[in-house]
Amino acid sequence: MEEMKRPVVIGVTGGSGSGKTTVSNEIFExxxxxxxxxxxQDAYYNDQTDMPMDERKQVNYDHPDAFDTDLLVxxxxxxxxGHAIEQPTYNYADYNRAPETVTIEPANVIIxxxxxxxxxxxxxxxxxxxxxxxxxxxxxxxxxxxRDVEERGRTIDSVVNQYMETVKPMYHQFIEPTKRYxxxxxxxxxxxxxxxxxxxxxLRVILDAEKKNKL
Length: 215
Description:
Its main location: cytoplasm. The protein has a domain at 38-106. The protein is built from seven helices and seven strands, in the order βαβααβββαβααβα. It has helices at residues 20-30, 53-58, 69-80, 121-124, 137-152, 156-175, 193-213; strands spanning 8-14, 36-40, 85-91, 96-104, 109-113, 129-134, 184-187. It has a five-stranded parallel beta sheet, covered by helices on one side. A two-stranded antiparallel ribbon has the order 3-4. The two termini are 14 Å apart.
């Protein structure tokens, strides 16, 4: 496949448990055959190696300051410019960045997924298409509890406490207000077949136009 002049960068955001990862994966699968990569914002939590475990557990991971946004912006720019990156990885059990990295090659479509994508202007400006997944609070909470207990080894009490103390207030303070930056607001996440069909159709129009206009 011939390379396009510039990759199409798609940002998918929404509250924790909204279904943004499901939507991102659905887009990825529907555009199978295209040159595509996905960057999860969760991989860019700050390196906390110098912090004791007790302090790591007290960090507000739903606040923009918990992320190394500068690194995400830098690496996204590198991908846009056609350079491979070494994406960091995160170990939830250690509350810290893992030593391993993942090599991500440049591609024609880049999907960036995360809860706080639209907060920082420098990151927002790199996104060609901004999708906000809008899901009811109760559903998001249930999904988050199931995920954290089953996949991340958290207790029910710890999930509830974290949700009440940081997740819910941070959502209303930082995430929900960024809905105004969205090009597309997708209710019900991955359950919204009509909405995802429309997103797929629009992306195919953009990709086809880019291919026709390539040098």
